[in-house]
Amino acid sequence: MVFENAQKQLEKAKKHVKLVQETEEMLKYPVEAFTFSIPVRMDNGSLKVFEGHRVRYNDARGPTKGGIRYHPGVTLDEVKALAFWMTIKCAVINIPYGGGKGGITVDPHKLSKAELERLSRGWMRKAYRIVGPDRDIPAPDVYTTGQIMAWMMDEYSILRGEYCPGVITGKPLSLGGSLGRSYATALGGYYCVKEAVQKIEVGKKVVIQGFGNAGAHMARLLSGDGFKVIAVSDSKGGAYLEEGFDYDKLMQVKEKDKRVDAYPGCKKMSNEELLEIGCDILVLAALENVVTKENADKIKAKMIVELANGPVTPEADDILHKNGKFLIPDILANSGGVCVSYFEWVQNKQGYYWKEDEVNAKLEEKMIKEFNATFDIHNEKKVDMRTAAYVLALGRIDEATKDKALY
Ligand code: GLU
């Protein structure tokens, strides 16, 4: 279902860009799609088998790149869609990678730290056959952390018999991580918003759905820059505050009570209600398929920013476009994460590490350049921003495919 949505986006974009037959054919199938079982010894002595996946979707532009998701809803179909989106995303932000993705069907919150370590090392023992610093480079995604990347990098290094920091990104700083990586997804999205508000007239009231790593940092960046965050939500529910949240206080509440709707004096609401609040900018930072043909007409925000992957379905996309909304698509808005992953990998390869402001300045330059390249196509071809970003990416993938495709 998610993969079908991704293919629908591709079909729509193909009407506006001329591709060689080889590119069209290659983009229909993943290069490799791998499902495996991960046996884990649980703390109570029993053995439990988890299902793991890794998909390398397309490697025309370089080694495949993309995160690993731990979530009870993970399926091979979803991982395939996410790997396809990574292919497009890496081409939009113009880094020399193809796209990949991985996952484990699991609720990581139900595991102890030791079980989580055994599971993560187990994933790498199986995925060892397909990942590698010049082949396929994983990273964090939903519910995976720097600690998990550290265990996986260590496991890979043990199997190889040498230190291999370049096999995975999003690592802790002590193990070859990059300064700025932890908040790069949000920072990239923030740079997009800063560019967008110079072109589209829009107010300062912001609603953020999802308060994980990306959503929380986005709240910090926007509220620190004169925007007013009036509603936020996490998986447990939403919170609304007319006068706007104090970011530091919100973080304290989230850390202490593990939910944003414990914020004193806020109005509680569901995640669905939160999407329909009257506001100027709606940031989608949770999961796929939250804006559908059922609720798209009720979205009041003028600008929509997709920090999550795939939060708007193709049918909803058409409705939002028809209603005059300006949507900054996932493949551009959240590409700051993989962009700084690329910087981390470059630093690992050269064994020389950059200062935080150097990383952020390089990210800013890339985001502004590719935001504007997308915006120009949006204007010239009179297409929505998602289709414009696809057109930009497909042109780049097509060039690489043309230059090497001879089978
Ligand atoms: N999981 C993130 C994404 O969807 C980051 C991937 C990466 O850094 O490789 O873009």
Content of β-strand: 15-25%
CATH superfamily of the largest domain: Leucine Dehydrogenase, chain A, domain 1
**Annotation, overall tally of beta strands:** 13
Separation, N- and C-terminal Cα atoms: 31 Å
Level of helix content? 40-55%
Bound molecules: glutamic acid
Oligomer: single chain
Q: Looking at CATH, which topology of the largest domain would you report? A: Rossmann fold
How do the strands of the widest beta sheet line up side by side? 10-9-8-7-11-12-13
CATH class of the largest domain: Alpha Beta
Low-confidence stretches: none
Radius of gyration: 20 Å
Describe the largest sheet: 7 strands, mixed
Assigned CATH architecture of the largest domain: 3-Layer(aba) Sandwich
Count of domain modules: 2
Category from helices, strands and their pairing:
alpha/beta
SSE topology string: HHEEEEHEHEHHEHEEHEHEEHEHHHH
Average residue-wise pLDDT: 97
Counting H and I runs of at least 4 residues, what is the number of helices? 14
* Global outline: globular
Question: Summed up, what is this model?
Answer:
This protein has helices spanning 2-14, 21-26, 76-92, 113-127, 146-160, 184-199, 213-223, 247-257, 271-275, 314-322, 330-333, 335-350, 356-381, 385-404, and strands spanning 32-41, 47-58, 64-65, 68-71, 98-105, 136-137, 205-209, 228-234, 237-240, 267-269, 281-284, 303-306, 326-328.
Give an overview in words.
With 407 residues, the chain is an alpha/beta fold. The chain folds into 2 domains: 13-165, Leucine Dehydrogenase, chain A, domain 1 (Rossmann fold, 3-Layer(aba) Sandwich), CATH 3.40.50; 184-328, Rossmann fold. The chain has helices at 2-14, 21-26, 76-92, 113-127, 146-160, 184-199, 213-223, 247-257, 271-275, 314-322, 330-333, 335-350, 356-381, 385-404, and strands spanning 32-41, 47-58, 64-65, 68-71, 98-105, 136-137, 205-209, 228-234, 237-240, 267-269, 281-284, 303-306, 326-328. Helix 7 links the parallel strand 7 (205-209) and strand 8 (228-234). The two termini are 31 Å apart. The relative contact order is 0.14. Bound molecules: glutamic acid. Glutamic acid (GLU) binds at residues 65-67, 139, 141, 169-170, 309, 334, 337-338, 341.
